[in-house]
Amino acid sequence: MSDEVFPDSVKDFVFDLHDASRRSFIASEEQTLYSGTFREMTAKYFPNVAWPSPAAISDECGGDELFLALYNELTLRHLQSVKRPNVNDRIEGWHAYRQLFDLILGEAPEDGAEVKKANLYLIPEWCFDILHEFLYQFQGFCQFRTATYCAAAKSADEPEKRSANVSDALELLGQNRDAWAVETVLFYLHRLVAVGTQKNASATYRCLAYFSSVTLSRLECLLGDYKASIAALDVIYDSKAELIAVGEDMKTPEELVNSVFPARLSLAYHSGVSYLMLRRYKDSGAMLGGICLFMQRGFKTGQLRKIPGSEQFNKLFDRMIALLAILSHVCPTPILDDSIAAIVHDKHANNLSKIEAGEEGYEDLFVFACPKFVNPAVPDYSQALKPGCESTPYGQDAYKLQVKQFMNEMETHATLRKMRSYMTLYTSIGVEKLASFNDMKVEQFESWLTCFKHKMNQLENNNKKGSAMDIHYYVTDNIVHVDEAEKVRRFENFFMKQIQNNDDILRQLEAIKIEL
Hints:
The protein has about 525 residues and is mainly alpha-helical. Helix content is about 60%, strand content about 5%. It contains 20 helices and 7 strands. The strands form 3 sheets. A 3-stranded antiparallel β-sheet has the order 3-7-6. Helix 12 runs antiparallel to helix 13. The longest helix is centred in the N-terminal third of the chain and has 31 residues. It is globular and about 85 Å long. It starts with 7 loop residues before the first helix and ends in a 5-residue tail after the last helix.
C-alpha cells in the first residue's frame, strides 16, 4: 500500500491517537487505540508491509514532531517484527530511537523548574514497549555485528567466495561505527531515569523512568555487570518514591511495573540471573520462584494468553524453571514453593541425577536458561578482510565467557556438596577423618571448611548478611561439630505470602470480562 493511497480509517486512527496522547490524555481511549485498534488495522491493511510513512500522515497530527517520532517507532517496530531486518533497517532503527528520545528529553521540564501542565501522555504498556524494543534492537545489532565480522573473516583467505551481502554489510557497519554504541544506549536510559524521578516530572515521564530502570537492569545483565543490574532497580524499590497516577489509580513504582506483565517478567528473569551469578541464591530463588508461581496460575486461568507476546511466556517460564533447578541444588536451604518444586523435579530430574552422580549437568541447564549475553565492543572491521585473521574478534564471545565463569563456580560447589553430605551424617567428626572421606589432605581440607562458610554467606534484600546453609558447624581441637541451622518460625511470612497470592487471584478475576 503506497503512502499516497491508504484508507480513511488509518487517518482517523492517527488523528485519534494523537489526540489521546497530546491533548485529551484519556487513558481508556489511548489503551483501546494502542492495544486494540492498531493491531486490528495492522492485521487488516498492513500484515506484512510497512505502515504509511510519518510524512504521509503528518497532516493528521498537525506536523507534531514528537508524535511523528512516536508513530515512526511504533510502525518500524511492527515492520521489524514481520521481516528480517538488514543492516540498513537496523541503522534506521537506531536513528529513529535517537530522534524519539532526544525529543522526549527535550520536552522534559528542567530539574527544580515550576511544574507545568503535562504535554504528553503514554499508557504504561506503550512506555515499556518502546524501551523493551529499544534494547531488543541493541541486542540484535550486537549479535548481527559479530556474525557479519565472523562471516567476513572466514572468507578472508578466499575473498571471491565472500557473498555480496556480507561485503556490503561490513562496509556499512564500518561507516556507522557509532550506531547502537553502548555508551549512547546507557546515556539515554540513565537520562530517562534521572528526568522521570524529578519531583516535577509528569506521570508519563515517571513511567518512562521506572521502565527505563527495568531496561537498564536487563542491559547490565546482558553485559555481565550483575551488581549494576541489581543496583538499577533501586529506584523501583525506593520506599520514599511518590505515587504515580495511572488512569484513575495511584500506584507505587513497584505496582506500576507489576501492572505491565512483560515488564514484571523481564525484571524477575534478569534480576534472578544476576542474583544467581552474585551467589545470592536465596534472593534469586525468591525472585524466580515468585514469578513462576504467578505464571503457573496465569496459565491455568488463561489470563496470560490474552497478553500480546504471550507465545514467549512459555519459553521464558521453562528457562526460569531450569534456573530454579540449579538453585535448588546449590542452595541447601528450601527456597521453592511445593508446586514449583514439583515442576522442577518433573522437568529436570535427569539432569539433577547426573549432577548427584558426579557427572556434568549444570552447564546444560545454564546454557538453556541463560540470556543471550552480548559484548558491545566495536571490532576493527578492516581486520576481517585480512588473510589469516581470527574468525572471532577478541572479546566478542561474551556468551562463552559467562558460561565459563558460571561453571568455575559450580566446580567449587561439587566439592562443597560432597562435604555437606558427609557432615549431615555426624554431630561431631575429626577433621582428619572428614578430610579422608573427601580425598584431601588435612591442610587442604581446612581451607575448604572455611570456603563452605564463605560461599554460603550472602547479602539479602535487607542488605544484611545471611546464610544459605541448612547446617551449622564449627571446629574446636580438630573436631568438626555439626548441628542443624537454627530455625526461626516466622508465621508472618506464610500469611503475607497467602495474602499476596489472594490479591493476585482477585486481580485476575476482576480482569475477566463476563458477557451476559
